[in-house]
Specification:
With 131 residues, this protein is mainly beta. The protein has one helix spanning 19-26, and strands at residues 9-10, 30-35, 41-42, 57-62, 65-74, 81-88, 93-98, 111-117, 119-120, 125-130. Bound molecules: zinc ion.
């Protein structure tokens, strides 16, 4: 890795709705929300299913593997970083950061895997690195 400088990430906002999500993150587990009414998975976690508006949703673990759907490298920042949408193998897409990689080699459709990145005073956040 040419550039070892990693951007510090701000602590995420934790609400009652996402408390279990961040508790799991602190243990290195990624959760997504599953609707028991229509069967769809979604992310970012919400109590109400965005597909059928049912409130019958529950936590389910994600494997932490996926592909880059889109990404953007912020090169003008003090420490350059890459924002991306990653489509999890389970289906939902999540907005995230791509870390520990050479930004010049990133490409759409690339396989990535979950790696948690520490934050300033909060739970670690799910980020992704090339698989
Ligand atoms: Zn639903």
């Amino acid at each position: 890795m040419a550039d070892t400088k990693e951007r510090k990430l701000p602590a995420p906002a934790v609400s009652a709705e996402t408390q279990a999500y961040w508790d799991a993150a602190a243990k290195g587990k990624l959760l997504v929300r599953k609707c028991t009414s229509c069967g769809e998975l979604h992310h970012y976690p919400r109590t109400i299913c965005p597909f059928c508006f049912s409130d019958q949703t529950e936590w389910t673990p994600a494997k932490g593997t996926g592909t880059i759907y889109s990404y953007s490298v912020m090169r003008r920042a003090e420490v350059p970083y890459a924002i991306a949408y990653v489509t999890l193998d389970e289906g939902p897409s999540m907005m995230t950061n791509l870390v520990q990689c050479d930004f010049d080699t990133l490409r759409i459709g690339q396989r990535v895997k979950l790696v948690f990145t520490p934050t300033e005073g909060g739970p670690p956040v799910p980020t992704f690195t090339p698989a």
